[in-house]
Each structure stands twice: as structure tokens, then as C-alpha cells.
Design goal:
Blueprint (H helix, E strand, L loop, with lengths): L11 H8 L6 H9 L8 H12 L1 H6 L3 H4 L8 H24 L6 H12 L6 E7 L5 E9 L9 H11 L3 E7 L9 H15 L4 E9 L2 E4 H4 L3
Parallel strand pairs: 3-4
Antiparallel strand pairs: 1-2, 1-3, 4-5
Helix pairs in contact: 2-3, 6-7, 8-9
Length: 225
């Protein structure tokens, strides 16, 4: 069932035009993106099912294209491509904001950005945000990739990349595919190793974030750095 078949009071498009996007809930905004439902399930029901299955809007944005195939009505490429486009737009908006403002001023923005970039990955990655002297984002780099339980991290490669970017500081981050963001002893150890290695070239480690589908943990906030 498409929007035109919904009762007038349930049509998100008309409500958005009349009252603004902020008046719509997550399911209604998502329904606008999906545009149509399928036989026996209108677009609002399909939108709500997506939110229920993937744990809300944040969970949906962290979902892979393959995961979306599990939902009847999203097996084709069109709707999955639309959702992927929205996800990429969100990443780019957050990236632009990090390049404009000091990351220390926006710790939640950094967490949101990393959630979108690495929380959903099925394998572990170690990434670095390279920052200028004003702690604005220069570049985001995936430095190392491992299995579900381990990533080999080489400090010299991070140091070399920091020098190439003329970075003044970095934010380290890696994901836990298990879904639990709690730092391990190994995570704490590599943080100290990275901090010591980068200090030799006068580059500060501002934070090391552990990111997972269940949230994120800042080692700086924990007092580990």
C-alpha cells in the first residue's frame, strides 16, 4: 500500500508539509523514504517493522545492506540503495562538522560518527582520526583489520601516517563486533603503546574509543589515558 492509499490523517508527507519534519516520528520519516509498502503491509507498517527488527533508527543506520535482505519487501535493490544513500549522507554531514569544529568540543558527535562508520562491521577494525593543531578532523583512516576477536596493530604505521598528514593529535578507535563496547586489557595496553609511540613525534592521543552496536566507551572519560 502506498501513501495515497493511507487515510488522510496518516499521511506523513502532508503532515510534514503542513507542520514540519520535526513533528513526524521515526517510523513516519522512514516511511517517507521507503514510499511504498507491499501486499498486505502498508508503508507505515513496513517502516515500523524495520525499526523493531534493527533496534530503532540508530540500529537501522548501522545495518548492512545484506541484513536488510532479511526483511520482506527490501529484497530488491531500490529501497536498500535508498537507505544506504541516507546512511552515507549522514556520515558525510558528521564528517563535515568534525572538520569545522574542535572534536573536543563535540565528543558525542565523534561517537555518532564512529557508530555510523564502524559499529555495524562484522570484523574488527582499528581506525584513526587525524587532527590538526585546532583538533579539527584532517582525515579518517582504517589502519588495520582483523578477525572477530583480534586485530594486529602496528604503531609505526600510525606514526608514519600522522607525519604524512602533519597531524597534531589523533583519536584512536576500534569496534567490538560482539556488540559489547567494554575495553579489554589488550585494548588498554595498545592505547598506552600508541600514546608512547606518537609522543616521540609530538602527536597527542586525545582518546581511544571502543565502538559497538550496544554503544561506545571513551577511555579518556574512563581515565585510562
Amino acid at each position: 500500500m502506498a501513501f495515497k492509499d493511507l487515510p488522510a490523517g496518516m499521511r506523513p508527507r502532508e503532515r510534514l508539509v503542513a507542520h514540519g519534519a520535526a513533528t513526524l516520528d521515526d517510523a513516519e520519516l522512514l516511511a517517507l523514504l521507503l514510499r511504498t509498502g507491499l501486499a498486505g503491509k502498508n508503508v507505515m507498517q513496513l517502516a515500523q517493522e524495520l525499526l523493531d527488527v534493527f533496534g530503532g533508527l540508530a540500529g537501522l543506520l548501522n545495518t548492512s545492506l545484506d541484513d536488510l535482505k532479511r526483511i520482506k519487501g527490501l529484497g530488491g535493490n531500490a529501497k536498500r540503495a535508498q537507505l544506504a544513500a541516507v546512511l552515507e549522507l549522514a556520515r558525510r554531514v558528521l564528517s563535515c562538522r568534525l572538520k569545522e569544529r574542535e572534536v573536543l568540543d563535540r565528543p558525542n558527535l565523534v561517537k555518532d560518527y564512529l557508530q555510523l562508520r564502524i559499529a555495524h562491521l562484522p570484523h574488527e577494525v582499528f581506525v584513526v582520526l587525524f587532527l590538526d593543531t585546532h583538533h579539527r578532523l584532517i582525515a579518517f583512516e582504517e589502519m588495520f583489520r582483523g578477525t572477530l576477536t583480534h586485530t594486529s596493530v602496528y604503531p609505526r604505521e600510525v606514526v608514519a601516517q600522522a607525519l604524512q598528514y602533519h597531524a597534531a593529535a589523533v583519536v584512536l578507535a576500534h569496534n567490538h563486533p560482539s556488540g559489547l563496547p567494554e575495553p579489554s586489557r589488550a585494548d588498554e595496553a595498545i592505547t598506552q603503546i600508541m600514546k608512547a609511540a606518537l609522543a616521540l613525534v609530538d602527536v597527542r592521543v586525545l582518546d581511544h574509543l571502543v565502538v559497538a552496536s550496544g554503544g561506545s566507551v571513551s577511555m579518556a572519560e574512563r581515565g585510562i589515558l
